[in-house]
Amino acid sequence: CVLCGRTDDCPEKYGEKRTYVAYNLTVHYYCLLMSSGIWQRGQEDEGVDGFLIADIRKEVNRAAKLKCNICKKKGASIGCVAPKCKRSYHFPCGIQKECIFQFMEDFRSYCWEHKPVQKFSDKESRGTSQCTICLDLVEQLPVYTVLKSPCCKNAWFHRECLQYQALSAGIFFFRCSVCNNKDKFQKEMLRMGIHIPEKDASWELEENAYQDLLQCYQHCDIKRCLCKKGRDYNEPDSKWEIKRCQCCGSRGTHLACSAMKSWEQNWECMECRSILAKSGNYSKQKKRSLATSEKTDGTTCLLEEPSPKCPRQSPGSQRSFLLQSPKIMCQNNLSPCSHRERPASNRVMMSLSPLMSNRNCSLRKKHLRKNRREVSNILKELKLQVNTKTTRLNINAENIWNSALKGFRQRNFNPTNTIEIKFTNCKNRSKTDTSAASKHHFFQLLMLHLQNSSLFEGSSAKNLSLDFQAVKENLYFEAGKMIAVSLVHGGPSPCFFSKTLFNCLVYGPENVKPALEDVADVDVARTIKMIKYANSLSSLQSAINDCYEFLAAAGCLRPITSLCDKNMLVNDILIHHVIKRIISPLESFRQGLKTLGVLEKMQMHPDAFSSILCHKPERLSAETICDLFTIHSSSDVNKVEGADFWMGYLQDVESGESVVTLEDILLFATGSISIPPIGFDPEPTIKFLHIRYPIGNRLLNCLELPITKTYDQFKNKMEFTIRNTLRVERE
User: Fold this and answer.
1) How crowded is the C-beta side of 724, counted as CA atoms within 13 Å?
2) Does the pLDDT of residue 180 top 80, yes or no?
3) Where are the transmembrane segments (predicted)?
4) Which residue has the higher pLDDT, 616 or 437?
């Protein structure tokens, strides 16, 4: 290795040793990562994983002048980052001397004297316990070779065991082996020098690793099998194809033996059917993670059962939720008893409901703002992938979809390049709009088109629709890709996803239960309502007969023996129509959203991304605009008076005492009518200058405001300039 001088080839300790014959260069990957004077200035496919060959040579020359404080030989490329510490060493020497190397952020290194250590309270017992990976004994001591779990009190590990597990599991599966905590555990292990590679788990990459699981049950278990070729005979796409039980998968039937017209029809074996009948609603709820539950007294409860990725609500917390939720309070109106007949507790709840509602609204807004701040930070992290190389898209605003599709599909398009927009149908736009403003306008038009396109269905909260031509042309993939690129490149978010669509993307369609509101087709919704609200077995049978062809085509025909069977039938129809019917578009859409790592972050931070994908952006307020802009002024300007005029003007605009709106002010300054999820880059600023009229510098997101003697002068100049500038642009 040109950096440490060793010939060892030990990937677990020093990283992969790579030799480049063309450059006469051999280097350990970890030696390269941890070297203090080199950065990844190239693309991933340039040099050695982005480290340019010329930069590596310079680093070797720099290190040749430094002596290792451990082996006393030259070539020490790694230095301790502690202030005033001048120790340098080779990577293998640092490992031997128990230095800490942090494989994150700036790839910091700490010498044996300044390295971070885990804190142990005096109350903790000192003894031995089992390493939960290798099961050998480990001493409970704060030493380099031993690490303690940050999330489990009595979980101890050998450092070497943890490192091997991290290399095998990768960033997606490395977690505490006791409690399965991922975020807290990974953060602490990275701090203590465990390298967690950004790759999939080794068992996921192994070829045919799950081959044994692909053996399907192929046997007809019906009491009277009609197939002359025997119970084990299976002929796909015929009436002798074997269908397995949808619940257990360990029983089967020929389609003809159970009088099934289509393979799409659901079928349960006798054992599973009897279990479902005995267990009633409880088993149905356990089977689906987002099912609505029913209270024992028969009244509907609006609480959703939590997703398997979310913490389950404790029994004690249900009462407090009932007190807070305005939705559940209004269920009291459905009770057959009058207001006087209601219990006192209900009357108190009713009287408090407006106050509770306002409080809940305020808390909900606060929670949304917090999640949107979190999303902004996540998107800024993803934007670090974007380089300075530009890709120009020529866009026709009157035909936004086709021109965008053409641009995204062009051979040189790369989502990691900086995108530059040129509107080809507007000769004057290049004079009035900066690159950033044009880009935001383009993404805004694109998101609006997607919202109203045939790819989605529904009124405000939309699900994917089934458009065979769009599937054929792979348009669902392109739509997902466009949304991901818009989010990372500073465009708006779609804001129209339904909760069902979002949950399908994040948790997988198999873990989602759709609701009647997700059905956009009026005829299908009417059919479901007929079945759902049937109040007798005869009316239920009549409703099923009326829509027999639809149920058969959907594969939802099932034997109905009692009125409660309608719930399972309704559930089957909803799952077929909202999810199974569009499974191909959904998978294509998911693949598109993987662009730039957006889907992965959505799955890691579902609450945060739900705030921008399922909710419309918060209406602009004077407070929001005031917080958005940072005020700068020269020394000869009265900053306080200028700020007072500015804030007073914002309040006038918000209260309607102005001819312009807050959106107009934002558009004038930044070229955008809303605040993008990622925020503005650069951050918007205000300058008070000795000028006649305000100027909106969209390239810098800077609002240059005139210094005036009175507030009326300030207001008149603002309104005259903003109104006329925007009018000219619209024309």
Assistant:
1) 9
2) yes
3) none
4) 616
Contact 631, 685 (CB under 8 A): yes
pLDDT tens per residue, range 548-559:
888 888 888 878
* Type and span of the H or E element at 171: helix 159-173
**Which residue shows structure tokens 């119970």?**
231
Cβ burial of 296 (10 Å; 0-12, 13-18, 19+) is: exposed
* The token pair that represents 572 in the structure block: 């089957």
Average pLDDT over residues 158-186: 91
Please state the rounded mean pLDDT for residues 427-450. Answer: 73
In whole angstroms, what is the distance from residue 678 CA to residue 487 CA?
A: 7
CA pseudo-torsion sign 171, 174, 176, 181: positive
Residue 596 to residue 419: CA distance in whole angstroms = 14
Give the Cα-Cα-Cα angle 77, 83, 88 (nearest 5 degrees). 20
Q: What are the backbone angles phi and psi of residue 294, rounded to the nearest 5°?
A: -125, 140
**Where does the pLDDT of residue 59 fall: very low under 50, low under 70, confident under 90, or very high at 90 and above?**
very high
Query: In this structure, are residues 450 and 456 in contact, taking their beta carbons and an 8 Å threshold?
Result: yes
Nearest to 130 by CA among 96, 154, 159: 154
* Cα–chain center distance at 686: 34
DSSP string covering 46-87, please?
A: STBTTB-HHHHHHHHHHHTT-B-TTT--B---EE--STT---
pLDDT over 90 (residue 643):
no
Strand-pairing partners, residue 100, are 110
Percent of all residues in the chain with a pLDDT value above 70, rounded to a whole number: 83
Task: Mention every residue, 6+ apart, whose C-beta is less than 8 A from residue 658.
Answer: 649, 652, 715, 719
What are the φ/ψ torsions at residue 373 (nearest 5 degrees)?
-65, -40
Fold of 385-616: Hect, E3 ligase catalytic domain fold (3.90.1750)
Task: Give the Cα separation of 585 and 476 in Å (integer).
Answer: 6
For tokens 């720099």, name the residue.
62
CA distance 702 to 717: 17
Here the contacts of 577-582 (C-beta below 8 Å, separation 24 or greater) are: 577/514, 577/519, 577/521, 577/524, 578/463, 578/500, 578/514, 578/518, 578/519, 579/500, 579/504, 579/509, 579/512, 579/514, 580/509, 581/466, 582/463, 582/464, 582/465, 582/466
337: confidence class by pLDDT, cuts 50, 70, 90: very low
Token reading at 328: 């559940």
Distance between CA 689 and CA 706 in Å, rounded? Answer: 5
Place of tokens 């465990």: 194
Q: Which CATH architecture has domain 17-110?
A: 2-Layer Sandwich (3.30)
Tens of pLDDT, residue by residue over 282-300, are: 333 333 333 333 333 333 3
What CATH number labels 622-730? 3.30.2410.10
Predicted pLDDT of residue 636:
53
Q: Where are the domains of the chain?
A: 17-110, 128-204, 385-616, 622-730
HSE, side-chain direction, 13 A CA sphere, residue 238: 6
DSSP β-bridge partners for residue 457: 463
Q: Which residue has the higher pLDDT, 559 or 161?
A: 161
322, pLDDT greater than 90 = no
R_g of the chain, CA atoms, integer Å: 32
